[in-house]
Amino acid sequence: MYETISNFVAAFLTLSIFSFLYKDNPFYKFAEHLLVGVSMGYAIPVLYENVFIPYVYIPIFLNHDFIIIIPSLLGVLYILRFSKNLSWLARYPITFTMGIVGMGVPLSLHTSVLVQMRSAMLPLDNINTILIFIGTVTILLYFYFSKAHRGIYGKVTNMGIWFMMIGFGASFGYTVMARISLLIGRIQFLLGDWLGLIK
Amino acid sequence: MKRQIPLAIVITLGFLFVIHTFVPHKISQDFYDWFQTWIKAISPFAVFLGVMSLFNVHRTKISRRVPNWQYSVITLIGLFFTAFAGFMWGTQEGTPYMWLFTNVQMPMSATMFSLLAFYIASAAYKAFRARSAEATVLLVAAIIVMLGQVSLGAAITKWIPETSRWILNVPNLAAKRAIMIGVGLGMTATSLKILLGIERTYLG
Amino acid sequence: MNKLIQIFQKMQSVDRRYIFIVVALSIIIPLLIPFNSKTYVTEPTESIYRKIDSFANDKSKAVLLSFTHNASTMPELFPMEVAVLRHCFERNIKVFTICWLPDAAPLVDYAINTAKEDYNVQSGIDYCNFGYRPYSLRIPIMLGMGENIAESVETDSQGRKLDNLPIMDNIKNYDDMNLVIDFAGSSSAIQWVMYARAKFGANVAAGITAVMVADNYPYLQTGQLIGMFRGLKGAAEYEKLVDVFASYESPDYPNGRPFSKEIIKETWVPITDDKIPYKYKKARIGMNAQSVAHIMIIVFILLGNIGYFLTRQKKKKIV
């Protein structure tokens, strides 16, 4: 009985959202607003239990590591973001999250640029690796706007467009797949968990 | 001073992290351990930003009686009741809080994105036109990739999954790699701008 | 010919709600009437299987599953997670889980509970859920785990000190927890590549929604990602791999059999077979509907274009 009611509520809310396909209506608006509220409300106890308790409460009150009071107070400054006169104090906790970009400079350069460049150039031992090399270079040239795309240079950058179009086509094909998969999941819920038609 | 001190902290921390990446010395490790403890203690309070901003938006809508303000009441009830349920009855399996997650939040969140399946099908019919040679190539590549992913594609001919694999592994790879290199360079440049204090918008 | 053009013109202006009905039917019907279709296993999924399988019965190795998604992408990612957990439980492999979004925490429990029902496994011994950690701590924890997991993560989801858990014996950092699989609807696996792989040499794989698949191919070619689950199809492939090898039982192989390219190529698992529980073939059943839906979309594109060209020709003639 409990499970039936629970599934009914979930199915009702699922169908309320699907009702938008017909047109915007009060059921959809109700579900949409409820989702926003419940999602945020859900996060507060999770953060309290999994983050506040182990990283603030236990170190200060049980382990008496009083130095933790300083970063905790810095965290509290986030609230001042909404104050007219003291909002500048909210910059302090932000500075700590931004500092780590220092590590991102060498590591992202390594991951997304250097390793990729090396793999684009070596080894050029078959037609496919040569095509990958040509494609990568011609697209990079296409995005170089300091020289007019005319003459031979224009023809080279034009080749880049063709590679990009195939790439976008692949992305589009996979996007279709993803959206359909999500719908399959919801219909599996409605037909299986709710109506019991799939076993 | 309201901007300079935070900026100085970011620049100092940033460069210390650059050093930490390359120097595996004990001092460098101690600095990182200290940073971990501090950032962990700061992090739980960030939730205030989300809660306060959601609360302010909907409170304003209710107090100004804007059209459809009644739905903002539902958002706020959802917000406070869910949080209250978590603190009052716990967050374990079988509590009202988990019931709300399983039967309200989870199904709606999953359904919201599944709506896009309908719109992408409608767009496929009404908007995806082979208006030029480039658009035709895009559509043909998309169709081959779509067929290549499902068993029906292989049932038609084994060349469909083969061609789909080639498209993904060669021209698609080249395209995505070039874009990635561009984005990677852009990200590095932005990070450097933050490190050197040129980019300051994050300070608000 | 004119009549045909007229029909297509009418079809062009059809209310999109009729298209929506066709979409719904193309998914509902194959789900209600399941049929056996072939699931071809591809290289990116196979590599993940082989890597995990190489840890079988090895208590000094472990797998970390990182959940970076919420319920919105669950239909694609959840079957992958269940299949990987099932593989680990079948082959006696230590498995850890961690999540980075508040609303992912119950999804981790849900995945573990779904997979462990059929196995005699215990939390803290065979598997361990680190629980939720905020996204803002992702990079510090990723880096911290490279030095010492127990110090960086500190406690599991039940608040137990990691140092006190038997599962942590012989597991110190990425040298031991040698494979990280990030499940996400974004390119968040690349963060693991950037921090855990580039700095500590961890093996990284991605379980991603189909939307992000094409973008991640360059990382696959360079070997920065050792493998990739590609949307629902990836999940279906892994379900099959687990059925064919890890959960295979015979007098010769009482605890599953080793991977073989020949066997996987020639074995077709009938999904209409009641012996396989629904939860372990959900992705494969979904792929039936996916097949029909893809055909439908392709037909839509073709019909739309035929209509477009016929109308354009007519307009040209009039001019």
Overall CATH class of the largest domain in chain C: Alpha Beta
Q: Uncertain regions of chain C: pLDDT < 50 for 5+ in a row?
A: none
Provide the helix percentage of chain A. over 70%
Characterize the biggest β-sheet of chain C.
6 strands, parallel
Low-confidence stretches of chain A: none
Give the helices and strands of chain A as they follow along the chain. Answer: HHHHHHH
Residues in helices of chain C, as a percent range = 40-55%
What is the fold's blueprint, element by element?
The complex is a heterotrimer of chains A (199), B (204) and C (319).
Chain A: H1 2-18, H2 26-62, H3 69-76, H4 91-99, H5 101-121, H6 127-142, H7 151-194
Helix pairs in contact in A: 1-2, 1-7, 6-7
Chain B: H1 4-22, H2 26-42, H3 47-63, H4 69-89, H5 96-126, H6 133-149, H7 151-156, H8 159-169, H9 171-195
Chain C: H1 2-12, H2 16-32, H3 43-53, E1 62-68, H4 74-90, E2 94-99, H5 105-116, E3 127-132, H6 138-147, H7 149-153, E4 179-184, H8 189-200, E5 203-208, H9 210-213, H10 217-222, E6 227-230, H11 231-246, H12 261-266, H13 282-318
Parallel strand pairs in C: 1-2, 1-4, 2-3, 4-5, 5-6
Helix pairs in contact in C: 1-13, 2-13, 3-11, 4-5, 4-11, 6-8, 11-13
Word description of this protein:
The complex is a heterotrimer of chains A (199), B (204) and C (319). Chain A is mainly α. Helix content of chain A is 76%, strand content 0%. Chain A folds into two domains: 2-102, no CATH class; 104-194, no CATH class. Chain A has helices at 2-18, 26-62, 69-76, 91-99, 101-121, 127-142, 151-194. Chain A is extended and about 65 Å long. The mean pLDDT of chain A is 92. Chain B is mainly alpha-helical and 204 residues long. Chain B has two domains: 4-89, no CATH class; 116-192, no CATH class. Helices cover 80% and strands 0% of the residues of chain B. Chain B has helices at residues 4-22, 26-42, 47-63, 69-89, 96-126, 133-149, 151-156, 159-169, 171-195. The longest helix of chain B is centred in the middle third of the chain and has 31 residues, at 96-126. Chain B is extended, with a radius of gyration of 26 Å. The relative contact order of chain C is 0.16. In chain C, helix 8 (189-200) links the parallel strand 4 (179-184) and strand 5 (203-208). Chains in contact: A-B, A-C, B-C. At the A-B interface, helix 1, helix 2, helix 3, helix 4 and helix 5 of A face helix 1, helix 2, helix 3, helix 4 and helix 5 of B.
